[in-house]
Amino acid sequence: MYVGDLTKAKRIICTYYDTPPEHFGDYHFFDRQEQGRKTNQFILTASAVMILLGLLGTWLYIHFASGRFPLLSWQTALFASGVGIYFLLLNRVSRGAGFQQNLTRNTSSILALLSLISQNSQTTTAFAFLDEGSYGERGLEVLRDSVRPNAKIYYLDSIGADAPIRAIGKQFNEGQLQQLSIEHSSEAMGSINYLFCAEKQQDQTYVLPKKQLKQKELNSRNMQKVLALFG
User: Fold this and answer.
1) Mean of the pLDDT values across residues 168-175?
2) Structure pTM?
3) 165-168 and 183-185 as β-strands: parallel, antiparallel, unpaired?
4) How are beta strands 192-197 and 165-168 bridged, if at all?
5) Number of alpha helices (DSSP H) and beta strands (DSSP E) in the chain
6) What is the dihedral of CA 177, 183, 188, 189, to 10 degrees?
């Protein structure tokens, strides 16, 4: 979903709105392969556990209850409901949809984008909510094909986390970043400028630890920095 005229905008601020799949461990920025591996590990493990529970439940039913319940009874209805719920849960787990807590990863960035939209009065700024941002870069590719060649694209990710806020890209105002105490790296990341919260590891990769992924309150200071940077 786009807000504003992409063909005229000189600056586009965007984030993804899809729910990230469940995964083991930390969230690795810019490493689709590692993130995919951790997601597949969760799906395989959780699916195996669910299948074993289903087999156990079936065995218990066959050996202890199958001959005791009349076909039309509340016990049979309760069992049928349990089977239905089981297959719904199995379907969710097989797609990586566990019990995600998305406040940090995408909700915080969506809230920041909505705040920027409400404050924006510049016709040269547009906003984009991208699909499939948790799974790949299809949404970014469509966006790049829709904007003018020299437009600046800023991508928000996990900006409400309790971690240092960082900027990567060559089209940021370095004076503003220094004033807001935002760490900046001008390394090339294609034509996209990234603003996100993460810990930097010794191997120069960026991760968001599991603890921050599951936090229940937004880091209001980081949120305010984003609003000040783009406001």
Assistant:
1) 88
2) 0.75
3) parallel
4) antiparallel
5) 7, 10
6) -100
Express each pLDDT in 68-113 by its tens digit.
656 565 666 666 677 777 777 766 666 555 555 677 778 888 899 9
Query: Which residues touch 210 (CB under 8 Å, ≥6 apart)?
Result: 25, 26
Hunting for tokens 């709105």 — which residue is that? 17
Cβ distance 160 to 223 under 8 Å? Answer: yes
Given a contact cutoff of 8 angstroms between Cβ atoms, the answer to whether 54 and 90 are in contact is yes
Write the CA distances from 127 to 100, 151, 152, 153, integer angstroms.
26, 12, 11, 9
For residue range 149-164, what is the model confidence (pLDDT) as tens digits? 888 999 999 888 989 9
Q: Which two tokens stand for residue 97?
A: 């949809």
Q: Which helix (H) or strand (E) holds 230?
A: helix 220-230
Give residues with Cβ within 8 angstroms of 174, minimum separation 6.
184
Q: Got the DSSP string for 146-192?
A: HS-TT-EEEEEESTTSSS-EEEESSSS-HHHHHHTT-EEE---BTBE
Angle between helices 74-94 and 32-60 (to 10 degrees): 160
The confidence band for 29, taking pLDDT boundaries of 50, 70 and 90, is confident
Give the C-alpha separation, 153 to 7, whole Å: 13
> How many Cα atoms are found within 13 Å in the side-chain-facing hemisphere of 120?
20
Q: For the chain, first and last CA: distance in Å?
A: 21
